[in-house]
Amino acid sequence: MDLSQVVSLYLYSNTKKAIEAIPELSRRRGGKVQPASEASAQREYEKLAQIGRHFIACGSDGYPEHLKSFDDSPFILSCLGHMHLLKKPTLSIIGARNASLKSCKYTERISSELGEQGYVVISGMARGIDRSAHQGA
């Protein structure tokens, strides 16, 4: 059980009640967070499954070992591509979205060399440096 599950059970007695409390907690902090409905989440799941996405829950086989050590690691990962890469050594290369062409080329070269050494580049897939890191790897 991870920290968020413990907090959910302690404060709200179950996860469903914790999710139902999100809008009020958000409002108190000046935000407007509204969790998706179950029907909306199901539609999203089905769309992603149709394009070959895989879902890996924390604690299941295939969940990356290095993520398990973080209290705030994602409960579910949505993955597209070669799942065996999640078991390889990873690194993140992050930087400016509006990076110069020279910076992007340099990033591609570095990430290409790291890829040749067996590293997998992970990121949020933004434009600029992040994109160049993925292209190089």
Number of strands: 4
Computed Rg: 19 Å
How many independent structural domains?
3
Query: How does the major sheet shape up?
Result: 2 strands, antiparallel
Tally of helical runs: 6
Report the helical percentage. 40-55%
**Strand order of the biggest β-sheet:** 1-2
Mean pLDDT: 81
Estimated share of beta-strand residues: 5-15%
Straight-line distance between termini: 34 Å
Q: List low-confidence stretches.
A: none
**Can you write the helix and strand succession as a string?**
HHHEHEEHEH
Strand-pairing-aware structural class: mainly alpha
Q: How would you sum up the global shape? A: globular
Q: How would you portray this structure in words?
A:
It is a single chain. The chain has six helices and four strands. The chain has 137 residues and is mostly helical. Strand 3, helix 5 (101-116) and strand 4 form a beta-alpha-beta unit. It has three domains: 1-35, no CATH class; 36-83, no CATH class; 88-137, no CATH class. It is globular and about 50 Å long. The protein has helices spanning 3-12, 15-28, 38-50, 65-68, 101-116, 129-136; strands at residues 54-57, 76-79, 90-91, 120-121.
